[in-house]
Structures are given as C-alpha cells and as structure tokens.
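User: I'm putting together a small comparison set for a docking exercise, and I want a reference complex before I start. The sequence is below, and the ligand is nicotinamide-adenine-dinucleotide. Could you produce the 3D structure with the ligand included, as structure tokens?
Assistant: Of course. I'll restate your input first, then give the structure tokens for the complex.
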Amino acid sequence: MTPERFENVIIGSGEAGKYLAWTLGKKGQGVAVVERGKIGGACPNVACLPTKNVIYGAKVAAMVREAGRFGVRTGPVAVDMDAVRARKQAMVDDMQAVHLNNFHAGGTELVLGEGRFVGPRTIRVALNAGGERVLQGDRVFLDVGTRASLPPIPGLADARPMTHVEALDLGRLPAHLVILGGGYVGLEFAQALRRFGSRVTILNRSGRLLDREDPDVSEALLQLMDDEGVEVRLNVAAAAVEGRSGEALRITLDGGSVIEATDLLVAAGRTPNTDSLDADRGGVELDGRGFVRVNDRLETTADGVWAMGECAGSPQFTHVSFDDYRVVRDNVLGGSRSTAGRLVPYCLFTDPELAHVGLSESEAKAQGVPYRVARIPTARVLRAVTSSAPRGFLKALVAAAPDDRILGFTAFGVEASELLAAVQTAMMGGMPYTALRDGLFAHPTMAEGLALLFAETPRIP
Ligand SMILES: Cc1cc2nc3c(=O)[nH]c(=O)nc-3n(C[C@H](O)[C@H](O)[C@H](O)COP(=O)(O)OP(=O)(O)OC[C@H]3O[C@@H](n4cnc5c(N)ncnc54)[C@H](O)[C@@H]3O)c2cc1C
Ligand SMILES: NC(=O)c1ccc[n+]([C@@H]2O[C@H](COP(=O)([O-])OP(=O)(O)OC[C@H]3O[C@@H](n4cnc5c(N)ncnc54)[C@H](O)[C@@H]3O)[C@@H](O)[C@H]2O)c1
C-alpha cells in the first residue's frame, strides 16, 4: 500500500496531541491525527474533568449531610448514582462536541484507529471501522498516553476490576469498594465513593499514602481518610483475588488475612501505551519501563519523531502535557524551548485539597539544599474559620539566609489549589519571601494566610 503523505502525523489526540494538531492545522499545515479511543484523550473523557465533576457531586452530598452544623435543616438524604453519572456524562458529551468542532475548524484529518510503526515516520492504522490506512509524516508526534496498570496478582484480571474508566460510569453504589493503591486516583475516588455512601477500604503497598510527598502530608491524608470513614491498610499486598468485581470478591492478603468486598478498583500507577506501537520499527527507543526516550526538547531517538505527555515520561498531569505541546510547538516552528528546570505544580482534589509546587522538604534534604521552613495550621487563616474548614496546614520552604527565594510550597486545606498559583507566581518572578510576608492581601481571603505563613520564616537558617 502506498503511504499517504502528510506534513504532520500525530498519534494520540490527548492534551499535547490535540493542541499541536489545532495549532499546526491553523497554520495551514497538513495534519493527520490518529486516535484509537476517545477523542481528546483521557483528561476530558475519563480522567481529570469527569473525576472533578463526580467529586463535586460527592461534596454536595457531604455538605447536605452536614447542613445541620450550618443551621440548615434538611430531610432524609439519598444519593442517585445514575443522576451522578448523567451529570458527568452531559459534561463529557459537551466537551466531545467542542473537540470535534476544533478538529474540523483546524482542517485536521482525524483518523479513528490504532496506529503502529511499520518504518521510519510511517504508520499503519488499523481503522476502528475496519480496513487500514498507511500514513507517512514529514514529522511524527507521539502522544499515546498511559493506562491503569494491572498488578500481576493471581485472579486479579479474572475478577474484572474497575479502573477509573469504569468507576466513572458506575451508575450504582458499591456496597463495599476495595481500592488497590493509595495514590492520586485511589484517594480521590475513596473519598468520593465514601461520601456517596459506600464502605471503602484502601489497600496500599507502601507504608504511606501519596508516598512521594513529605511524611506530614501523608499523615494528614491518612487522618482525613480516617475521619471520612475510609479504612486504610498500609504496607499490605494482595496475594490473590477470587470472585468478580460488581458481585462478590475475596481478597487474600500476604500473611493470609481475607477481605470480602463487592467491588474492586485498581489505582496502582500507570503503564505506557507504547506496547502496541512497534516503536523499534520506527527507530524510536523506549526505556526499561516502556516510556519513549526523549531529550529535553522532546525529540526521540528517531529523526523527525517527537514524543509528548505521559508516554514521554513527563510528570503525569494534564498541564504538563500541555506544556510539552508548547515545547514541541516552539521547537518545530523554529524556536528553542526545553523541559529542563520547569516548575511543575500539582493538586490532589480531595476535600480539602492538597497543592504543591517546587521542592518538598524530603527533596531538599535528599539534594542537600539548605532551607528554612515556615508552617502554620490552616486554622490560623480567618477565611477558613468562617467556613468551619480549619483542617490542614500551609508550609513553605525558603532558601537559607541570606538567600530569600521561595523554594517550595505545600498547602493542605480549603482552596489550596487556588492559593498555590499565588505562591507559584512569586516563585516564577523570583520574588523574595518577604514580598509575600509584607504583602497587603484582601480580608478575609485564604491569600491573607500567605502573609501569616511567611512571617514564620526563621530569619537565621
Ligand atoms: C482518574 C484520573 C484523574 C486525573 N486527574 C487529573 C487532574 O485533576 N489534573 C491533572 O493535571 N491530571 C490529572 N490526571 C492525569 C491526566 O489525565 C494525564 O496526565 C493526561 O490526560 C495525559 O495526557 P497525554 O497528553 O499524555 O495523553 P492521553 O490523554 O493519555 O491521550 C493519549 C491518547 O492516545 C490514544 N492512543 C494510545 N495509543 C494509540 C495508538 N497506538 N493509536 C492511536 N491512538 C492511541 C489513546 O486512546 C488516548 O486518547 C488524572 C488521571 C487519572 C487517571
Ligand atoms: N489530581 C490529579 O492531578 C491527579 C488525579 C489522579 C491521577 N493523577 C495522575 O495519575 C497518576 C497515576 O495515579 P495512580 O493513583 O494510579 O498512581 P500513583 O502512583 O499516584 O499511586 C499508586 C499507589 O499504588 C500503590 N500500589 C502500587 N502497586 C500496588 C499493589 N499491587 N497493591 C496495592 N498498592 C499498590 C503505590 O504504593 C502507590 O501508593 C498520578 O501519579 C498522577 O500523576 C493526577
């Protein structure tokens, strides 16, 4: 089959792929985007946005139950999971329409099917509708993302556990949900499903929740889960699973104890979607874990082939994929942009939220970076007091004196995700911590807490 030639072939329509397609298309370049699944990738369909939609529904359920505390009387509260799903799906459907419209407006050719390399910059697509096409790009861009990993536990695959994809489409309330993994996906779903009314147990292999964060963060999240009625078992490994998720399950742990449950959600990290790509036939090297090897310009080992987003081993957040798109866009269009040294903020959308940017205390210690710590309880911020939401803390890492730069910031508490941007902006501008300490912030806002926080920075290292 003679290949069809395009200036640009993009595999995967996720965050990085779609923005690159729309940008190059608008510049009048020929672009083909190959997508085997949902148009627009994980974020709008099965990840960030639908989870935040459902989490907000769970917050409403929690607030209604708590209404009495605020002097509001309600009747008996019931959760309709079908309506929760319908609200989520309506948002996802609206976004699908926006995506399709953008693809059409940009003059991009959307090729629905699975692509794999058959030669340098040459992709064979097994079309979802049947048949195949062979596309050759002057440039090829990979944005194939990752999927939920399935740990090799005997009986796990046969139990048909849910991943985040199925959990977002439940339409019913699990009686007892077991979640394998106490990371981002596990914690966000655990709290939401518990608030809707499920019994929830988290089984986490490591000894801490969100184990890449500082121990005080893991401890605070453990306390939150405990207060919400989520059972957390740390340092446990499932040795075998029997039964079917959605019906009845027996999960045997190392050591022999057994947990009986009705539903199982696997949230134990991600596996890159490069295993079906025949990357070697395109001259594209993968690392030992299957991520595409790239340099800091996101060029792969093959001439004219770039990789972006999670498949390129970038931090697993949508805003990072978006920044990868900007790095590639600028490099392709004649500029020079690198991923090196970029500041990566992130938020965990539990209630309250966890937000972080820059160095953590553990990282500073490991890297031998001298620092000062400022820390206050969220309860000192009057805005949090007005909302009866005193849980959590604000913590900043400042360089050792006389260097007054802010090295890192963590907030666990109400509005943490919005507060994060203020400190990140100061960090991007290279402002000394004293600028925030002495800043005049509106009252009563959470930002006011930044003046309180930075006033706690020790003057001497
Ligand atoms: C439950 C959950 C919640 C999350 N919440 C957040 C959040 O709140 N904030 C945040 O920043 N991040 C969040 N993330 C992470 C975020 O979703 C990802 O980092 C982001 O979507 C990754 O985008 P990407 O560009 O790497 O590609 P993806 O969005 O993963 O897109 C890759 C696309 O490639 C397609 N594809 C794969 N192989 C092929 C092939 N061979 N041929 C054709 N097409 C192919 C796939 O179908 C997919 O559509 C969440 C993740 C999960 C799982
Ligand atoms: N709010 C957000 O931005 C958001 C939300 C969800 C996901 N994400 C992204 O998606 C990524 C993947 O999320 P995730 O929760 O799947 O992974 P994760 O890496 O955050 O957490 C995985 C957890 O599973 C545990 N684990 C691994 N194998 C296990 C096993 N066999 N049994 C029990 N526990 C096991 C690990 O100890 C770890 O605590 C995150 O790292 C994050 O970057 C972001």
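The CA atoms of residues 149 and 333 lie 36 Å apart. The radius of gyration is 24 Å.
User: Thanks, that's exactly what I needed.
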